[in-house]
Amino acid sequence: MLAIHGLTSSSRTWLATARALSGRATLLAPDLRGRGRSNELPPPFGIDAHVRDLLVVLDRFELVRPVIAGHSLGDYIAARLAVRHPDRVSLLVLVDGGLEIPESRGVDPEQFLERFLGPSYERLEMTFASPAAYRVWWEEHPAFAGSDIDPRDLDEYSRHDLVGHEPELRSAVNPRVIADDGRDLFEPRDADALSVCAVLLCAPRGMVDDPNPMQPLGLVQEWADGDPSRRRAVEVPDVNHFTIVLGRAGAEVVAGEIATAI
After folding, report:
1. Could you give the CA distance from residue 256 to residue 251 in angstroms, rounded to a whole number?
2. Per-residue confidence (pLDDT) for residue 62, from 0 to 100
3. What is the pTM of this model?
4. How many CB atoms lie within 10 A of CB 1?
5. Given phi > 0 = left and psi -120 to 50 = alpha, else beta, which region is 118?
């Protein structure tokens, strides 16, 4: 199956899910253009560009109709791929994304994203003296502090997101992708036009472990009720927008839905 990460993240979003899937499925998770080890790839960015890239990935690995999972921005990309190329997708597992973000109507996209992403956005303008310092920054992030994330995953997640040289290390995320990809989040959402079966898992807490989820259960349930024969809504208890995939408990639920889909 193919797994697509979020706006300011990388392929390492899926470490815990891959481990939970062990023996049940093979998970292929690339770095999107502008992140991780794809961070030096040039524009264009945006959802359409990522869909084109991922079609190349599917062809390269001879994946005809895999299950496709997304997290956050990855859900919007997965949904567009499924709407434009339904013959390339068997089923979608959407994780805390794909629908309208609360309070995002009629606002300036760039200002909204800066406020919405919070520390994840602020770090893109920061430098770090060492990998250990960057690891500590993530450890103290409100979404991760006190969470059930495996320390090995946090090590790899933070290390994979670093470029440059000590003592001026920085995130591998190209800041331009925030504007280009983020702008597409405000367009009409493809998840409302899906012809393939899909499940959408939502977290009850938000970006900084706050009580304002990115995809409230009521919104997700309304989406599922729009086509109940092909859509399901699942709220994953006691997780936030990050730990729904990076935490042990959240990853077990996501892996279970992927295994069921396969």
Report:
1. 8
2. 96
3. 0.97
4. 21
5. left
Q: The tokens of 195 are what? A: 């012809």
- For residue 177 the two structure tokens come to 């992708």
List alpha helices for the chain, DSSP H. Answer: 15-20, 47-60, 73-84, 109-117, 119-122, 131-139, 151-160, 175-184, 217-225, 243-246, 248-261
Residue 165: CB atoms within 10 A of its CB come to 6
Strands 2-4 and 162-165: unpaired
Q: What are the phi and psi torsion angles at 206 (to 5°)?
A: -100, -155
The answer to whether the bond into 167 is cis (omega within 30° of 0) is yes
Q: Coil, strand or helix: which one is 125? A: helix
Identify the pLDDT of residue 68: 98
Give helix then strand counts, H and E, for the chain: 11, 7
Residues forming a β-bridge with 165:
168
**Ranges under pLDDT 50 in the chain:** none
Please report the pLDDT score of residue 128 as a whole number. 98
> How does strand 91-95 pair with strand 67-71?
parallel
Task: Report CA 169 to chain centroid distance, whole Å.
Answer: 24
**pLDDT, position 250:** 98
Cβ atoms of 183 and 109 within 8 Å: the answer is yes
